[in-house]
Amino acid sequence: MRSIYCGQLNVSHVNEEVTLCGWVNKRRDLGGMIFIDMRDREGIVQVFFDPAFKSAFDLAAELRNEFCIQIKGKVRARPEGQRNTDMATGEIEVLATDLDIINRAEILPLDFNQNNTEEQRLKYRYIDLRRPEMSARFKTRAKITAFVRRFMDENGFLDVETPMLTKATPEGARDYLVPSRVHKGEFYALPQSPQLFKQILMMSGFDRYYQIVKCFRDEDLRADRQPEFTQIDVETSFMSAENVREIMEKLIRELWMHIKQIDLGSFPVMTYAEAMRRFGSDKPDLRNPLEIVDVADVVKDIDFKVFAEPANDPKGRVALLCVPGGAELSRKQLDDYAKFISVYGAKGLAWIKINDIDAGLDGVQSPIAKFFTAQQMQQLLQRANAKNGDILLFGADSQKVVSDALGALRLKIGKDLKLTDENQWAPLWVIDFPMFEETETGLSAMHHPFTSPKDLSPDELQCNVLEAVANAYDMVINGYEVGGGSVRIHKNDMQQTVFNILGINEQEQREKFGFLLDALKYGTPPHAGLAFGLDRLTMLLTGTDNIRDVIAFPKTTAATCLLTDAPSPANPAALAELAIDVVKKD
Amino acid sequence: MRSIYCGQLNVSHVNEEVTLCGWVNKRRDLGGMIFIDMRDREGIVQVFFDPAFKSAFDLAAELRNEFCIQIKGKVRARPEGQRNTDMATGEIEVLATDLDIINRAEILPLDFNQNNTEEQRLKYRYIDLRRPEMSARFKTRAKITAFVRRFMDENGFLDVETPMLTKATPEGARDYLVPSRVHKGEFYALPQSPQLFKQILMMSGFDRYYQIVKCFRDEDLRADRQPEFTQIDVETSFMSAENVREIMEKLIRELWMHIKQIDLGSFPVMTYAEAMRRFGSDKPDLRNPLEIVDVADVVKDIDFKVFAEPANDPKGRVALLCVPGGAELSRKQLDDYAKFISVYGAKGLAWIKINDIDAGLDGVQSPIAKFFTAQQMQQLLQRANAKNGDILLFGADSQKVVSDALGALRLKIGKDLKLTDENQWAPLWVIDFPMFEETETGLSAMHHPFTSPKDLSPDELQCNVLEAVANAYDMVINGYEVGGGSVRIHKNDMQQTVFNILGINEQEQREKFGFLLDALKYGTPPHAGLAFGLDRLTMLLTGTDNIRDVIAFPKTTAATCLLTDAPSPANPAALAELAIDVVKKD
């Protein structure tokens, strides 16, 4: 029905007869003629109707925004002075000789080019997605997946599909359950990841696997989470953690080059311990120049309990951020920052402003300056590498509270004071995570229970549970965890040891992981893998911080699809067939 | 950990030092040496251990089948007379200088190279998938998807993901439901296809869409059905049915050329009516030379009610299959065929054997010959194009029973008598399906309720419901429906007319399809699409008729995963959180 897309026309088509299909983007009447901007997937072109072609001109009088039309016409160069160099097709226009109104449009329920609420945009998604800025994102997304697939294919990774109707697994977040009609009272689970299936594929000798695959998590949603999300899922045999990181880093570097023509360079590698110490986060945004500086040794003897106590507690931490130019911060701003970090458990925000670094205690301004000797203060300023006009902001509490609070404060101040260069790219690897972390209900695996410890036998692991380091790695870009993975356990005794440490008793091990423990008995190869969050990569590569902008039909933060109105009550007959009842609300 | 795959070694590597990783496929001790066939993803190579390399040799004595090992060694040409040209690596072998046993294997729970029950194969899938014939299928499957993606990308189709957690739709088969935790008592449905989302994408101006995507159907399973299956899903705007068929036929033709180096040629196009008349099926296997021949006009006056009644009933049909060489069939075989077609409602199987075509009534043998005059018999034999030694097999009943029975019998006899050339490829398009079919509960859409009628206005459709032809098309290869699609309705009034005909009242229309009816008001483009069954295409291209051989982790016909033992009872706490109860069994 068309000979070319609107957006593909240029001066090389002048004098050609063309047939175009698309939508009326805008109409204006000028000098006895009717002009429209006609839009299709590839762009916009100016079409005009001349009374000389009477039937087309008469029909054009009926055109309104978003009518779906077909026109036939002739391309011509725009007259001198009417050329629009801001528009890809701005040097030409099309004189319409025929017009067919394919489908009319009522007045739109939302304003096409203005800001609408996100609720409106999601409800009328079919109109929101017509906006060129939205369709551009999905073109980029398709370009990303095509590139990733090509890279993986070329590197010998085999694209294998794993099931969506699987067995429930205890991977930390909650499973979506699917009642079975054949086996009444039993349930499938939608996969949180294809973890065990990809490990089974390695046990089957597939050697290198990948899949771009939907995963599901029924958890409380945040701005950058969705109930269903897409993972670039990778697993390899006979490769070390370093091998996996090398090839995956190559993928991401080439992806950035392909999409943005930007060279990310070689990724620094940082241990979890160092990341927590310097940045208070296991996904540090390295574009932010602020670093957390430990000062427990400097303050351990001062007469200020708030500092001295954690400074002398092996589980405590006293540290600071030195903010350049921060001496300008008002009392109100400092109070707001104190409130901001209180959600991380911090009980206050001590500060020291540096007015004259050479004037000793007289050169600083601070409610806590009185607790310091001149020598202690000098030592502190030196450690912080402070300069005139800076402010020191302190955290003093348990290690966790200080790291979390100063880690978050660092990001906030970096943005507020524009210290973070938003145009930079800062990728890195974070490695050597702890194997286990203590939670309210006992120990849990920090990565997942199939992660191998680094250089430990089962016995050694058993004796060093909290100190044990996992052979795991996360890829972080600009403070987003874009991917993570690990070397997996490939020996039955080690897997059982980890299950035991996690308090999974033998019966539960058999029930939930019997097939894995069995499979580990038949010559399982060493294997390792990784998964990237495709939605996050796409957010970074399309410059949005709203995950719903890179998913065609997303859910709200209440897990609702406003377009189709899902979820919805089920047909009672269907529920009866599934042998389930809805519990009435109180 | 490896320098090259086992299966990649050949004479060009002679004298090279290599490191290999893989599994012991077979071991044999011979002449004081230990030989193993070592296997990895790419194939098998012979490795031998010489006592000269003592530590490797001593360790090799421990090797058993399926041990996972790493060896270092030197490639050498096999001695004259020991070369094996059946094996890709048969001209060389590797002298192992180092051996590392990475992981031992217990005695396998199934026989690696022998036939095992499918239950065993599914339960120990990690071992079954090690068999080279299985891994070869998944390599082909990955090659198919990569080719399809490349073709679609090159032809301007945009890969867009649609949701898995969707709203229930009434598409004929049953939905899998997913209870929502946030909206207690409400449910998502897993998609039977992304039909409405891909139509919405067309309304959004995406112009050409594709996706390789999981779909779900909770229905009784047959040998070639799975609860989850994979679709190559396609939708286009501004294209006619012919345009869509042309580009999709090109895809399949190029796919066959890519995978099998076979040219399928141009696909014949046949109407549904013709397919039912000539082959008794809407997915005829054209490799089978048998055709159904209508004879109602010949038998309408004979004194045999079984024939005469349906021959005179406008809803009846009398037809025959003429089977070459079929006069040899025994009474027992004919009884078996009669029984075979009884499941389609046929009440018997009348037959006429032709001994001497020139001898008139004396030349045939049949319990029903007595009802025919010589002239009628001659007319019958001519119509059937019968020859000496043939048999005529009759169906006489309602159109549906006769078509179904003779259609099925045609396939069975084609196989039994080896009339069907299994090495051929016979693709075709079937078009012009009826819009609606009568079922026990009323009218239902033969394709789906979004399919456009062919050349009818809403008023004309309303007046010709049962005669109306849909603008739908199926692609059939060797009797399998590999794909199907249609031109969709793109006008609000037509969509409402179809819903009305289907007895969906206005309230239900709003509840279930309100968003679609709304979207149709804002300049929807004409659009059409198609979906291929990837699993079926892969079955055809890998030469298996078992769908479970082309899915890495399939379900049984009872929808169970024997590997992981899914589905399984759910955690009561999880059910409580979802506000659902399992109804106790009686």
Automatic annotation (TrEMBL), chains A, B:
PROSITE patterns from the UniProt entry: AA_TRNA_LIGASE_II
Cell location: Cytoplasm
Protein's GO biological process: aspartyl-tRNA aminoacylation
Region annotation (Aspartate) ranges: 195-198
UniProt-recorded Gene Ontology molecular function terms: aspartate-tRNA ligase activity; aspartate-tRNA(Asn) ligase activity; ATP binding; nucleic acid binding
Family matches, as InterPro entries: Aa-tRNA-synt_II (IPR004364), aa-tRNA-synth_II (IPR006195), aa-tRNA-synth_II/BPL/LPL (IPR045864), Asp-tRNA-ligase_1 (IPR004524), Asp-tRNA-ligase_1_N (IPR047089), Asp/Asn-tRNA-synth_IIb (IPR002312), AspRS_core (IPR047090), GAD-like_sf (IPR004115)
Subunit (UniProt): Homodimer.
Name of the protein: Aspartate--tRNA(Asp/Asn) ligase
Organism: Candidatus Schmidhempelia bombi str. Bimp
Lineage summary: Bacteria, Pseudomonadati, Pseudomonadota, Gammaproteobacteria, Orbales
